[in-house]
Design a protein that fits this description.
Length: about 100
């Protein structure tokens, strides 16, 4: 991917805080590998990495979309704003909870 640019990056990164892994439903906690769930201490580690790296891969007319965990919207929107993204928005899932941040 070195040197390539894209009009859209869409990601569903790991977003569960490390301490919350033990509180997940048994069918998730006991059967999913931890490295498929753990988003770091605050659940935002991969958003920091994506936000830092995305500009080098995006064209001028771009979209960056990420799925988020419950309650992470403001933090991810703040990361996007700090990285210089504009037109930052959120979208709710079927349950009425914010589950996507885009810019």
């Amino acid at each position: 991917m070195q040197g390539e640019q894209f009009d859209l990056i869409d990601s569903n990164p790991l977003y569960i805080p490390s301490a919350d892994i033990t509180t997940l439903e048994p069918e998730v906690r006991e059967f999913e590998p931890r490295n498929a769930l753990d988003g770091g201490a605050d659940g935002l580690e991969f958003y920091r990495q994506i936000t830092a790296a995305a500009p080098q891969y995006l064209t001028a007319q771009v979209w960056l979309l990420v799925e988020i965990g419950v309650g992470q919207g403001d933090s991810v929107k703040g990361m996007f704003a700090s990285a210089g993204f504009s037109v930052i928005f959120t979208a709710k899932g079927p349950g009425g909870v914010v589950r996507v941040v885009g810019a």
